[in-house]
Amino acid sequence: MGGRREEILDAALSIADEHGLDAVSMRAVADRVGVTPMALYRHVSDKAALLDGVVGRLLSTLLASDADAGQAWGERLNTLAHACRAITRRHPWAAHLLFSRPAVTPDAVRAVDVIYTALLDAGVPEREVPRLERLISTFVLGFAASEASGRFAPGPVDPRGRRGRLPDGDLPGHTRIAPWLDLPVDLGTEFEADLDDIRRLIEAVATRAEVKDAPSPETARSANS
User: Do 1 and 71 share a domain, yes or no?
Assistant: First the structure.
């Protein structure tokens, strides 16, 4: 990445941190860098390209995380998921951006490839890898976006808790679990439990493929005869 383009992306990140993502514009970035808006177009073609570059910059930090090709596939996915959550906790606006922009920059594509490789190493059939990558990405980014927006906030502000206190019969599911809705939520523990569930799902897909591809007893007997 050229020095000026890096400076432009740094400026966009700073503006988003200070004033929110809606404040990021070509003019605002140009003012921060100290150039005319037209001068930006040599490095980013338009605002969409600017936002794609910001996504790439955010995801490049995932590649700098502790994930290592020598780790087991589950550890690599866990490391990547925790790094993504850490990014959105540092930059709450980033969850929506990561959720809404395609992975098109080199760093973004490499981050997705880490997931592809981990799934392949887990024994997931190639045809199932894109689907499971989308499931994992949607969960991690959705959890991060919900956490950043306060959707998971516990206590009296939680609309789920209010609905759970409605009269019996209105919402039977909420009424039945009402005592659990008002308990404090440990989002870190919940995130770990969710990742464990996803790992078991991946293992189930891989096992299902092994069973499906295994030769039938008749085939095995014919091969050994």
Answer: no
